[in-house]
Design goal:
alpha+beta; single chain; four-stranded antiparallel β-sheet; 2 helices
Length: about 80
């Protein structure tokens, strides 16, 4: 029997990394849908395969918080 992994309670700043959500934008090449996950920096068009990057990187508490290294370790552990 497999053991269910529990996700610890964390600050809301890392939710997009440990509980990613999907959104869609229009492809700049063909107008198709590009699937982009909140924990990824790029997306790929589902129609033509073109890569999409957001115009500006979204700010993250991992860049300035004094507990950022602990959160990075937690993210690595959850994703492994």
């Amino acid at each position: 029997m497999t053991q269910k992994r529990t996700i610890p309670i964390t600050c809301p700043g890392i939710n997009r990394f440990i509980r990613p959500t999907v959104s869609y934008v229009k492809c700049h090449i063909c107008g198709g849908d590009v699937e982009i996950w909140s924990d990824e920096e790029t997306g790929v068009c589902l129609n033509c395969g073109a890569e999409w990057r957001p115009p500006e990187k979204e700010a993250s508490c991992l860049e300035y918080c004094e507990y950022a290294e602990k959160c990075r370790e937690l993210i690595r552990e959850i994703k492994s």
